[in-house]
Amino acid sequence: MSVQTLIDNFVKENEADLTALPDYSGKDFSSDQDVRWCPGCGDYTILKQVQNAMPELGIAKKDIVFISGIGCSSRFPYYMDTFGMHSIHGRAPAIATGLKTSRPDLTVWIITGDGDSLSIGANHFAQLLRRNVNVNLLLFNNEIYGLTKGQYSPASPKGMVTKSTPYGSIDNPFNPLALSLGADGSFVARAMDRDPKHLKEMILRSHKHQGTSMLEIYQNCIVFNDGAFELFTDKKTRPQEAIYLEHGEPLVFGKEKDRGVRLDGLKPEVVTLGDDFSKDDLWVHDEQDSTKAHLLSKFFEHPANGEGVQFPRPFGVLYAIDRPCYDEGVVAQVQHAKETQGEANLDALIQGNETWVVK
Amino acid sequence: MSTKDQVHEDVTIRFAGDSGDGMQLTGSLFTNTTALLGNDLRTLPEFPAEIRAPQGTVPGVSSFQLQFGSRKILTPGDECDALVVMNSAALKANLSLLKKGGTIIANTAGFDKKNLNLAKYPEGVNPLEDGSLDDYELIEIDVNKMVKEAIGDMGLGYKDEDRTKNMFVLGLLYWMYSRPLDSTIDFLNLKFGKKKPEIADANIRVLKAGYYYGETAEIFSSRSQITVEQADLEPGTYRNITGNEALVLGLVAAARKANMPMFLGTYPITPASDVLHGLAQHKKFGITTFQAEDEIAACSSAIGASFGGSIGVTSSSGPGIALKGEAIGLAVMLELPLVVLNIQRAGPSTGMPTKTEQADLMQAVYGRNGESPLLIVAPSSPADCFEMAFEAVRISLEHMTPVIFLSDGYIANGSEPWKFPKESELANINVEFEKPRHAEEDEPFMPYRRDDRLVRKWAIPGTEGIEHRVGGLEKEDVTGNVSYDPDNHQKMTNIRRDKRDLVANNIPEQNIDQGNETGDVLILGWGGTYGSIKTVVHQLRREGMDISHAHLRYINPFPKNLEKLLKGFNQVIVPEINDGQLVRLIRSEFLIPAMPINKVKGRPFGVSELKQEILDLVGEETATKS
Fold first, then answer.
1. CA distance A89 to A133
2. Residue from the list B305, B421, B472 with its beta carbon closest to the beta carbon of A98
3. Which end of chain A is more exposed for a tag (fewer CB within 10 A), N or C?
4. Is some CB atom of chain B closer than 8 A to the CB atom of A46?
5. What is the ipTM of this complex?
6. What is the CATH number of domain A6-228+324-351?
């Protein structure tokens, strides 16, 4: 007899009838709490797009959990009408790991920021990606500490003047996507608050991926770091500065779609399409190619061709592969033990191998 | 055969050798054989924190002491009757623990020039030869040579041969104390029989060689074998068990009786790692173990599992508990069950990882930011870890509150005979999750609505209609919404305190372990000091003193009747392996002049030293009064 616990029974009894899910709208995922971010904060769009994406997951509300750490973005779960936990600074990945491993039936989302995940919680962030726990992580990156009122973060660029760096930051920032790939993340993507349509698409892709989905979202902090991502979010500069990745498509960007990225061996270069280069010469995006994903992640403050030309910043899915999820492995081991090791006989366990009788 | 058997009521022996000499295994095997014979016993394993400290040196010495007897045995013994030393460093480190007139069994191969130098004996000095051991009975044996003679023909390598040395002294001690070899032979066959039958065979041959050496050697011919009769234990079926083993079994049993999955999130640390090793084997009981990246993640993952409806457990020792502090505070705020196991060791900081101490009590009571009340239980002996682990799970689940379980290195690694319970004798732990709700028919769910014990409902994800958010920000009463309201914070702080205090209705009242319910002197102990205190109080009562002993196993909240009980005595004395922690709680809580007896040497109280300290304190008191 295998051990059937309260949770096994609970999950069975409460299994959602997916064919009869209510016809959710985004509003159904909005809690009764007043949203308390600063007016104009990028978090509002992200909240809206997450709420809009939820009905499309095909998951019952009761089976969705949002877990956050500490920071402005981490207030997020209070505004979602799902299960949620606003936890402690940096530890949401660890809490989510415990939850998902013990309750694989749940759909678990981690909400975190650049301070939460790249500084105090960087260890847990990296370990989550390494283990590939089947959860989705939305990293709201605004390159600043907002809730503590404006100190530089581990994502702030060098030289940035903030309250804690009046003479400019001398800290070399993390490159979140390179860090994620370095930690062997199985899904690494980037979106921005000012492109809600693409953002929602990325949220849905994150959900579909089996394993840890790491979606970095550029998010504008209107009070302490306004315009940090303007180059990419402003419609005027975006075509030159941002490149949207599509699996199987060449890397083309520019207002007139006249520029592209080609590979000279393992060296990427920006080229102008025309007489010298055609689309056929360009690098074709392959989400499953980890070498190329690493190269793309390095399109991050590196001048192209040594001429002061920036590579365009990539948005979309840099990398997505299937590899075993930690939580599935844990569940399989427990299941295997239950099925193959015979009856879980507590009396035999307590008794041990050697006993004696006192009369 | 020996001339004439001597019968002893109790015997204390100590095996000491290099870390690589297998003294811990030797001690455990002797313990098992002795337990199976029906003696009562207590053990004290002592080993260095280093895995292989420099060979032959004093810091590299590993020892195992046990006291066994035909009477009730509650401590591993103060001084030993017999000391086995495998090398000169072992003698140097342990001689002070041997009784005058006691027996030294010395492996002379460990007293060559090299070993004497490593042990830092002065040039030219060999304690076996210079008469410094004249006060003891010295038995010198070249164990290395004996082993060579016993199994030299088997063609094993030097290393494999050398590793059987401990079996020779074990065999010899079995002869000296009239113990059978079968349990050890069974063990060796089980351990090596299948994969390396020649190793099993070699060990068994050496074990027997040791035994027969005792029987036939001339130095023993005039010596009698010692017999220790069966102890007069309560009738029943027994096994031998260490504290950490009992703790693991208690957790598994509690999960079974609650019919719940258990999730251990942990990070390796001495002396708590055996809890992970133990639980990791019991997956078929629905137990998941997660070796996290650090102590914080370990505790956080257990909170995540608890939020999802599992029994969340995290284990560590003092340094790790310090790191978990913020997460434990979160569990207090979330009002979720969480079992935190602290196998205490000597601190502060890294301290002495393999040495025992009880100095994390204040950390358990107060060691978090804010007013953060939780529950504390403390086992009093190795076997008691079973019951208290079960209790920790029970009260955590029933009261939706974190519990800290305070064991210590002495209890965790020490062992004793245990009259174990049957599953059917254990009470069920009843857990009910909040039920699904439907918007049209039911009231909206209020996550922080409470019952009359101030306990909120366990509302787990996957339940329709009760979607809700929890978090570390202060909660509004009833709704659980974020609240900065001054009156609400006061109210919630009071509620969390009162909720803790109300647990006193759900734990046993404090009993007097020995002595009268009121009287002159009360010794109040907690945790691993139980055996020493009990032994001393027993002696003092026989000598006519009006003295009683009470031992706290529930520390936060205190049992309801504790105040009344304490106030029934003229003098309350609190012995602890720390610098005075429970005594401060008792003084501040009950405004009584309780007196401390403290020691922090990484070892439990010796019976004679504790007795003397008590006599001194009682004497002072009497002197002041007259």
1. 20
2. B305
3. C
4. no
5. 0.97
6. 3.40.50.970
